[in-house]
Structures are given as structure tokens and as C-alpha cells.
Amino acid sequence: MNSFKKYLAEFIGTAVLVILGCGTAMLVGCNAAAGCGYILTALAFGLVIVGMAYCIGNISGCHINPAVSIGVLVSGGMSVKDFFGYIVAQCLGAIAGTGVLYAIFDLGSVTDMTGGYGSNGLAGVNGSFVAGLVVEVVLTFIFVLTILGVTSKKAGHGSFAGVVIGFTLTLVHILGIGLTGTSVNPARSLGPALFAGGAALADLWVFIVAPFVGGVLAALVYKFLESKKEEAAE
User: Fold this and answer.
1) pTM for the whole structure
2) Which listed residue, 15, 65, 180, 232, has the most CB atoms within 10 A of its CB?
């Protein structure tokens, strides 16, 4: 039952991330030249993380992102069973969240300023798979490395962790939106791509592979850095 509650928390958290993050992008647009919509979207994703961290963080850890979960798995913070449970819950949550956006924007005849449920794409990097992979690996690495550091029991950041993580997600979005739309989260990319279809679905593999690679790299680097710190203390 405890595992079910954790999975349910991850489902809800990921659905909320998609509804509020992608929903904001759909409503205000993500044109870097316009500026306002760009920044609002970055803030929406970051603020959702802050809110959910204090809402479900004590239940599931508030991963709401498969890239975060694989980072926690590699760093030894969760079991393989829970890892797969989290992934399924997160993906289903993202799909459900996009379904809510479909009801609001399509059935409600509200204009989607992104033209694709806030889905990710490679237009900002001129369609380059290589550039897209680099952007997403680097941004995910930064995001997951920050999470592992700020949530470490040795760090002692306690109640401030959610704020730090939320602002870090905002920061990576400020750079990434104009390039790939910023995924750093395979589940967040999956839901909108399934509903948008077309190019979003064709490019989806980039936004699944790259965040997973970035999450694993972040975990390996953090484990190395933390072990060196322990050696120095001894």
C-alpha cells in the first residue's frame, strides 16, 4: 500500500506539472522575441516543482520525472522495483495531464499558442538531433546534479530544497525553451507528443534518451564528488 501511495503521488505530481507547465506555454506562447511568455513558461515549470515538493515530497520524494528517478536509482536512493513503478506512474500522469489540456484547449476551443500541447521539438536547433541531444543531456545533468546535492542528508538544506530545485528548473528552462522547448523530463515530453503527433512524436526519442543519459551522468558524477569529500574528511 505504501508503494501504491508513492506511485499515486508521482502520478498526481507529473499530471500537475504538465497541466500547469505545458498549459502555461500553450496559453502564453514561448516566443523568445516576445519575452513575456517565454519567462512565464519557465517560471510556471519551476513554481510547480516548488509547490509539489512541499505537497508530495514527504510521500514520494517528488521526482515527477524519470530522469530524476534514474539518477536516484543509480545513486542508490531507491529500489529497482520502485524505479519502474515511478516511471509508469509518471508517464501515465503526463498523459492524463495532457488529456486535461486537450479538454480545455481542444474541446473548449481555446487557442494553443504553441501549436502542439507545449511539446518539445528541434526547431530551435535547426532540426539537429546532435544539438538537441547535447542541450538536453547538459540541462538534465545540471538539474539532476542539483537535486542530488540539495537533497543529500549531508547537505543539510532541509526545507529549502524545494525552492532551490524549483529555481534550478526555471533556470534551465530559460536557456532551453528557445532551443528544444526544454524537456529534461521524458514523461513531460511523452504526454504532449502523443497528443500532438507529427514532428513532436518523431523527435520524441531525443527527449527520452537525452534526459536519461543526463540523469545517469549526474548520479555518477555526484557519487564521485561525494566520495572524494568523504576521503578528504577522513
Assistant:
1) 0.95
2) 65
